[in-house]
Amino acid sequence: MSPPSSVAHQKLKHHVHHECLRAFKTAIPLIISFIPFGMMLGAQAKIKDMSWLELVLMCGINFAGGSEFVAIGLWQQTPPLLLIVCMTLLVNCRHILMGVTMIPICRRQPVRKMLLSFFLLCDETWALSLQDSYRRMEEGYREPFSYPHYITIAVSFYITWIITALLGIIIGPMLGDLTQYGFDMAFPAVFIVLLRGMWNGWRRGIPWIGSLFVACAVHLLIPGQWYVIAGAITGLLIVLCLPPSFFEVDHA
Amino acid sequence: MHDSLINHHAFLTILCMGLVTYLTRISGYLLLRNKNYPRLIRVLEILPGCVMISLVAPIFVTGKLSDFIAAILTILTAMRFSFLVTLIVGIGSAGILRHFLPMVLH
């Protein structure tokens, strides 16, 4: 290798290393928020008499917490395949929306690479990547999507999820209910902080408030995870019904 | 089959779950990747917030006063402080309030 390209290689390596470290630091609060959920999942799998291999495979192949809680709720010695698959589709419908919102950010990325990385897309990875890309966009980067940043976050959540689920199936029943210590507040707390970062004035907040109210109402009235879809669609309708000029933001 | 770690049917169920989930992850991106509606851009700027706020909505309506107060405290903290501080206040206040305020709203 010629010296100049080796220097460039060194620089790239340093850049990737820096991005990974930065991503890991941002991911820490969310990694903490995964622990109670993963352990709760494992503890419930234990109650349903699932084997550790089944649990690990479910976490590793599916990797979408909400649908895994539902599947374990329906689990039997011979699991009802069609019911579980349909419920998985309903619970994970929101991923379609997440994929759509990623489009403007990863426009320059090769399609095949994105299709592979979408395997690891979950609520939290999506939220952190989006936030980071918006920030990079404002700072004037040509490419808003940072691939090493995304992958570091995604892989660290993936590993955390599997390990905490395993811990749950082994020691979960001994710990009792983690929610009594408030650990389940980690998930909303993280999202509230992310929303604060995306806040862009009251006008753009109106669809959010609409989403919040409808999601609360639907959660009270209809069992299951319909509230996510109902809230998102309400926000979508509000945006479509108001004239585009209503949402203009002064970037002064 | 009881002693084995996994049976064929369970494995197939898990595999199908994974497939369906992966399809939801890529379908939005695949379908709309090359489209360019001006309205879509506007929607895409605001929709992520709508999804996120819908995901956290249940915490406001658990029916427990303690959870509601903890959620409000978390929002107030988030407005001024960092990620980790908000996380600590959120978990701490929920844990403490649930212990001392086991009051049910409805």
UniProtKB/TrEMBL annotation, chain A:
The chain crosses the membrane at residues 23-43, 55-75, 81-102, 150-169, 181-199, 205-222, 227-247. Its main location: membrane. InterPro entries: Brnchd-chn_aa_trnsp_permease. It comes from the Bacteria. Signal peptide: none annotated. It is a multi-pass membrane protein. The keyword Cell membrane applies. It is found in: Cell membrane. Keywords: Cell membrane, Membrane, Transmembrane, Transmembrane helix, Transport. Belongs to the AzlC family. This is AzlC family ABC transporter permease. It comes from Commensalibacter nepenthis.
Automatic annotation (TrEMBL), chain B:
The keyword Membrane applies. Pfam families: AzlD. InterPro entries: Brnchd-chn_aa_trnsp_AzlD. The keyword Membrane applies. Keywords: Membrane, Transmembrane, Transmembrane helix. The chain crosses the membrane at residues 12-32, 44-62, 68-97. This is AzlD family protein. It comes from Commensalibacter nepenthis.
